[in-house]
């Protein structure tokens, strides 16, 4: 079906990003609720938006990637993406309230890995994995969002050519691709970002800097390239499995990092899909709604 912007009623703002605003909207006729990501574009940005659309179309059937329904034209020429509404919001908003207990972290890590597996198997790297781009719904489903900087890999393209993504979650080799002479592996870079995001859920703040610190480029670069990222896990009580998992993700040498497929077999996440996991995820949301 073709959608028009006048078919929708704006309910509220769900979030802001670099290029635009995400609204919760209701389709007037069917009363179905969606998220509408409106990106204020110029010609250059429009390219990026259509790349996101292209990627979302290619992963339309994925269970762990936010569902994409349509592009909705707007009078102003902005591009609006009609997306599945994730009613639990983003994990960065949730974790600001308190660190997550390990069973919830494990269940989230497992679902995010399933999402990454779906992407990687289609030769798509995300390049911007972080808590703000992991969304959750009331059913306890965790899905990957925001392909604004996702990129379809083509063999002919130098994967280092476009310098995008969020610096804080960038792997050491993305800061310094030269020293890795052509060995840059963008799939392994997604694994690093995922490891850091998962660690952040457990710590309750960005794990490589003191809580509340305002990172600048140089501080981040030093923390990521010269610090021992995996050691940050020891600052809060954690199981051996969790430590092991984080170590597998946060290997500084990309070649030593586990792949998504290998990580899905790691004991930390392998069993994290039972009743207990579902309860842990629902508890995150329940406490959240009690407080607000
Ligand atoms: P970019 O990182 O490329 O600038 P962005 O950050 O502007 O993109 P998103 O990450 O897609 O765009 O959305 C921004 C925020 O809006 C998210 O962090 C989340 O809080 C909220 N949001 C986005 N999509 C949805 C959705 N489908 N359901 C609920 N909330 C959403
Ligand atoms: Mg985002």
Automatic annotation (TrEMBL):
Highest taxon in the source lineage: Eukaryota
GO MF, any single term: protein serine/threonine kinase activity
Keyword Electron transport: no
Primary enzyme class: transferase
A single GO BP: response to other organism
Chemical reaction(s) catalysed: L-seryl-[protein] + ATP = O-phospho-L-seryl-[protein] + ADP + H(+); L-tyrosyl-[protein] + ATP = O-phospho-L-tyrosyl-[protein] + ADP + H(+); L-threonyl-[protein] + ATP = O-phospho-L-threonyl-[protein] + ADP + H(+)
GO cellular component, one term: cytoplasm
Keywords assigned: ATP-binding, Kinase, Nucleotide-binding, Phosphoprotein, Serine/threonine-protein kinase, Transferase
UniProt-annotated binding residues for ATP: 37
Residues annotated as domain Protein kinase: 8-269
EC number assigned by the record: 2.7.12.2
The UniProt record lists the keyword Chaperone: no
Family: Belongs to the protein kinase superfamily. STE Ser/Thr protein kinase family. MAP kinase kinase subfamily.
Protein name: mitogen-activated protein kinase kinase
Organism: Musa acuminata subsp. malaccensis
Part of the intact protein present: 62 to 353 of 353
